[in-house]
From TrEMBL:
<keyword id="KW-0507">mRNA processing</keyword>
<feature type="domain" description="RRM">
    <location>
        <begin position="774"/>
        <end position="850"/>
    </location>
</feature>
<dbReference type="InterPro" id="IPR008847">
    <property type="entry name" value="Suf"/>
</dbReference>
<dbReference type="GO" id="GO:0005634">
    <property type="term" value="C:nucleus"/>
</dbReference>
<dbReference type="InterPro" id="IPR012677">
    <property type="entry name" value="Nucleotide-bd_a/b_plait_sf"/>
</dbReference>
<feature type="region of interest" description="Disordered">
    <location>
        <begin position="852"/>
        <end position="930"/>
    </location>
</feature>
<dbReference type="GO" id="GO:0001731">
    <property type="term" value="P:formation of translation preinitiation complex"/>
</dbReference>
<feature type="compositionally biased region" description="Acidic residues">
    <location>
        <begin position="69"/>
        <end position="82"/>
    </location>
</feature>
<dbReference type="GO" id="GO:0034057">
    <property type="term" value="F:RNA strand-exchange activity"/>
</dbReference>
<feature type="compositionally biased region" description="Basic and acidic residues">
    <location>
        <begin position="920"/>
        <end position="930"/>
    </location>
</feature>
<protein>
    <recommendedName>
        <fullName>RRM domain-containing protein</fullName>
    </recommendedName>
</protein>
<dbReference type="Pfam" id="PF05843">
    <property type="entry name" value="Suf"/>
</dbReference>
<dbReference type="GO" id="GO:0043024">
    <property type="term" value="F:ribosomal small subunit binding"/>
</dbReference>
<keyword id="KW-0677">Repeat</keyword>
<keyword id="KW-0539">Nucleus</keyword>
<dbReference type="Pfam" id="PF00076">
    <property type="entry name" value="RRM_1"/>
</dbReference>
<feature type="compositionally biased region" description="Basic and acidic residues">
    <location>
        <begin position="852"/>
        <end position="876"/>
    </location>
</feature>
């Protein structure tokens, strides 16, 4: 297979031997440098580059290759030709330029709003190249490169455009920096050739600088099996050209040694190249034989060459698969697995780079590459560079950000860089709370490891505490769940106790965990007590156990047993006796509650069963009744003398013969709860966190006065339903309690209202209509506190109240109401503050004027059947049967009998005609049993 591979130099003329030095006559300069050799290039650049780009949008590189050494002649001819187009051609060009400029402006505006739209950058760059607008072209390219890695083609265009206009030493140095930057994003043999050739042609640096560039290129792409030979050949030919130039000097005494050293350098390059499996290596071997002579090649070099040829044969099947497989990603995966069996890290890394050049958006490939660097290669500087490229290509992959942070720590990177990395990653929206939490934890771990022992209250400790708090705030504000901050706060408490010997801070953090909804969970108490036992004192442990057995409901037996075990290991017998007595009392109370719950559940189950049986019985009666009516309708159809009438089966629903509705109240009927309290000395609370307990409610109202009783309404399964009643000693305390409306418990606003029996004082809801000239409606207040609003509006006389409207979760809805005592102050506030900024936020202020049409529009937009039902309620009810205590109309079941089967009593008087004979229950029973 290898024997048939053509060397890429075979199309050149045969080399000629001159004084023992091989000189390729057709290649006086290295590969890829021919476009820079024109003597008239500079003149051509200044006279036509921008003009031609503006007219025909041609790439300057293509222009040079096309015209060659006849640039001036061809330019003059083209200018003459362009003049012959006439005015119509000029008009067409103007229209095209106008459309081009319009499209450029549109793309610039679009990218200002959507700066991460990759395709728009590519299109804009191509359009700006056509316009020849180098200033904006540079700006857009730099902006794009900040956001995205650039492909080889984009870099080639950029480098070529800059090379065409670089004249001063400063511009050339800037281009070298650009070339050095271009080789970072993806593996590219062409960019390395461009880099070296430009430095050679423009004489940027000395020979050692050029050699350094080539050595870097060999490290990067020298193992590229199909294209690596190009950079080897360029490097060798550069050295050969240096050797040839030595013969031009007159100093024959110094040239001898330099010439020998240069020949040795070229020989070494040959040997290094022949030891690497590359396409075209047979041609390189023939060149080496011509250079050295067949008899002068040592056996070791031959052996290395033969091994390289064997390696090339082994890999050609994988190279062929990359050409035949539709999805080359699978081909690269198989190829990489093969290379891993050879255990040659440099070749594995080169193959990963080749695969990423074609599949840069594959998270799986980046993760496989970085995992190999972390676990096998373990050169952390290389790992950091690869991770930086990975997150630029796949910024949405959380695992790459996590690995990048760890790689920075392994490489000894600065903490400030890790902090910036965390900030950037959090702005990439990694998709889940777990991913964000992992970012914070990796950063926190680094800060914890950076703290020196014995440094109490040092800057490092302060930074760690601030970072913990920032992480808690970020995660809670983004995901709004208490569970999301549990692990972080536990970790923080443990570090305070174990590493900083700050048991007070540890207790504070653990108490906060209990108060945000974990008082009922035994595991949280056990963890707290274990920390106290290890870093605190025994007395506090006993106090915690005493609190825990009264609060825990998920595993009361477990917490009681833990207390008894603790006293057995740490306490005296008297301590164990006290603990045992308290545990027994608490377990007895819990046992009674469980028995009541079981009894209650059994009763509920019995009621559900009875209700189900009643429903089945009613269904049987309805089916029998329908069958009877159908039979009577059939009889009526067989009797032509009788008037046929259709029985309205659904009319029985309107007359009251339906399934018996459940009239017994629920187990937690609010009206029943209210009857137990005096309305003047009690309040109704709602929107209370489900995790709240009676102690939380008492603590909430402790500033008002003595709380006489607290009753929390619970579901049949014992869970708190979020509302309840609180009774106080007197009416004055009640009034103070009402002032706590919308204050928070565990971050949730609690609604405190008067305890009013709605059966006696029904609430009537209606939309507000009419203008309230003393009340202002303020919008866009989401990030402005009520205290800040009061500070702003207090400049006007008569400020009564400020109401910031919030959701049940406590988050602002973005608007507020400001109430004044007089219309003049309200009007003055509108005139002064409307469309003004408060803390960088523009607010809107207007007189409160709810649209009176909302009520009518609301009724118009309701479903027709609901509107019709509401209208029917307003009609006369004289034809509706009076409902008895059993829920049925006084007419009984007579309405169920079709009029067609009733007797037509024509002999009765008109006065008695309105009263029909009623059917008794026995009559109805006989009718059903026929």
């Amino acid at each position: 297979m290898v024997q048939n591979i053509c060397h890429h130099n075979t199309n050149l003329k045969d080399y000629e031997m001159r004084g023992g030095i091989i000189s390729p006559p057709d290649r006086s300069v290295p590969l890829g440098l021919s476009i820079y050799t024109s003597s008239k290039w500079s003149s051509f650049l200044h006279t036509s580059y921008f003009i031609r780009c503006q007219k025909v949008g041609m790439d300057s590189h293509d222009e040079v290759v096309q015209h060659g050494d006849d640039d001036d002649t061809n330019i003059d001819q083209e200018e003459d030709t362009s003049d012959s187009y006439g005015s119509s051609s000029s008009d067409t060009d103007d229209e095209e330029e106008g459309a081009l400029a319009q499209r450029v402006d549109h793309l610039l505006s679009y990218l200002h709003k959507n700066e991460f739209h990759y395709d728009s950058y590519v299109e804009l760059i191509n359009l700006l190249r056509q316009q020849g607008d180098l200033v904006r072209l540079r700006s857009i390219r730099k902006k794009m490169n900040q956001l995205f890695p650039l492909t080889e083609d984009l870099w080639m265009q950029w480098v070529s455009d800059e090379a065409n206009i670089a004249q001063t030493e400063e511009e050339k140095a800037g281009l070298v920096e650009l070339l050095d930057k271009s080789i970072i994003d993806y593996l590219s043999v062409g960019l390395w050739q461009k880099y070296a050739s430009y430095c050679i042609t423009e004489k940027v640096g000395n020979h050692n600088d050029i050699r350094n560039i080539y050595e870097r290129a060999l490290t990067s792409v020298g193992l590229h099996l199909t294209k690596g030979c190009y950079i080897w050949d360029d490097y060798r030919e550069y050295e050969i050209n240096i050797l040839n130039s030595m013969t031009e000097t007159d100093d024959l005494t110094s040239i001898a040694k330099e010439s020998l050293d240069q020949k040795d350098r070229i020989t070494t390059l040959y040997k290094r190249q022949l030891a690497v499996p590359l396409l075209g290596m047979q041609g390189t071997w023939r060149d080496f034989e011509s250079w050295m002579g067949k008899d002068s090649i040592d056996e070791y070099t031959k052996q290395l060459y033969e091994q390289a040829v064997e390696k090339l044969d082994q890999r050609m099947q994988y190279e062929d698969s990359l050409l035949s497989v539709e999805s080359t990603l699978d081909g690269y995966k198989n190829y990489i697995e093969f290379e891993k069996t050879t255990n040659e890290p440099a070749r594995i890394q080169c193959l990963y780079e080749r695969s990423l050049r074609n599949h840069c958006l594959s998270p799986e490939l980046w993760q496989s590459y970085t995992q190999y660097l972390d676990t096998k290669l373990k050169v952390w500087s290389i790992a950091v560079q690869v991770y930086e490229r990975a997150i630029r290509n796949c910024p949405w992959v959380a695992a790459l950000w996590h690995g990048y942070l760890r790689a920075q720590e392994r490489a000894g990177g600065p903490i400030e860089k890790m902090r910036d990395t965390v900030t950037t990653a959090l702005n990439c929206n990694l998709g889940s709370m777990e991913n964000d939490l992992s970012l914070w934890l990796i950063y926190i771990d680094r800060l914890r490891r950076n703290i020196k022992p014995g440094g109490e209250d040092s800057e490092e400790i302060t930074l760690l505490r601030d970072t913990f708090q920032a992480a808690l705030n970020h995660i809670y504000n983004r995901y709004e769940t208490v569970e999301s901050i549990d692990y972080l706060q536990k970790y923080w408490a443990k570090i305070e106790a174990r590493h900083f010997n700050n048991i007070e801070k540890c207790r504070q953090l653990r108490e906060e965990l209990l108060n945000i909804g974990h008082k009922r969970q035994a595991s949280y108490w056990i963890e707290y007590i274990e920390l106290e036992r290890a870093y605190g004192d025994i007395q506090n442990c006993q106090k915690l156990f005493s609190r825990a057995i009264r609060a825990v409901n998920d595993d009361p037996e477990g917490i009681c047993q833990a207390w008894l075990d603790f006293e057995r290991e740490e306490g005296q017998l008297s301590d164990w006796d006290i603990a045992n007595a308290k545990c027994q009392d608490q377990l007895q109370v819990i046992s009674q509650k469980r028995a009541k719950a079981v009894e209650k559940e059994a009763e509920e189950k019995k009621k559900r069963k009875e209700e189900k049986e009643r429903s089945k019985m009613q269904d049987r009666i309805n089916r029998k009744l329908a069958q009877t009516v159908a039979e009577r309708n059939q009889i009526d159809a067989d009797a032509p003398s009788r008037e046929k009438r259709k029985f309205d089966f659904d009319s029985r629903k309107e007359s009251g013969i339906t399934k018996k509705s459940r009239t017994d109240g629920s187990l937690n009927n609010p009206s029943r709860e209210r009857e137990r309290y005096n309305e003047k000395t009690s309040v109704f609370i709602s929107n209370v966190p489900f995790s709240a307990v009676e102690d939380d409610i008492r603590s909430f109202f402790s500033t008002c006065g003595n709380v006489k009783d607290v009753r929390l309404v619970r579901a049949p399964n014992g869970k708190f339903k979020g509302y309840g009643y609180v009774e106080f000693e007197d009416e004055l305390v009640t009034q103070e309690a009402l002032k706590l409306d919308r204050n928070t418990i565990a971050g949730r606003p609690v609604y405190v209202s008067e305890n009013v029996d709605k059966s006696k004082h029904p609430t009537e809801f209606k939309f507000g209509s009419g203008m309230d000239r003393c009340t202002l409606f303020v919008k866009n207040t989401k990030d402005i506190s009520s205290d800040r609003l009061r500070e702003v509006f207090n400049q006007f006389e008569g400020l009564r109240d400020i109401r910031c409207v919030a959701r049940k979760s406590g988050r602002s809805r973005g608007f507020a109401y400001i109430e004044f005592s007089n219309e003049a102050s309200a009007a003055n506030a509108v005139k002064t503050l409307d469309n003004t900024e408060i803390d960088g936020v523009t607010i809107s202020v207007a007189i409160s004027n709810p649209d009176a049409k909302e009520t009518s529009e609301f009724e118009k937009n309701r479903k027709p059947e609901i509107r019709e039902r509401n209208e029917s309620k307003n009609r006369s009810t004289s034809d509706v049967p009076t409902v008895t205590s059993r829920g049925r109309g006084r007419t009984g079941l007579s309405f169920m009998v079709p009029r067609s089967v009733k007797k037509n009593d024509s002999t009765t008087s008109e006065s008695s005609n309105n009263s029909s004979s009623k059917l008794s229950n026995d009559d109805f029973r006989k009718m059903l049993t026929k």
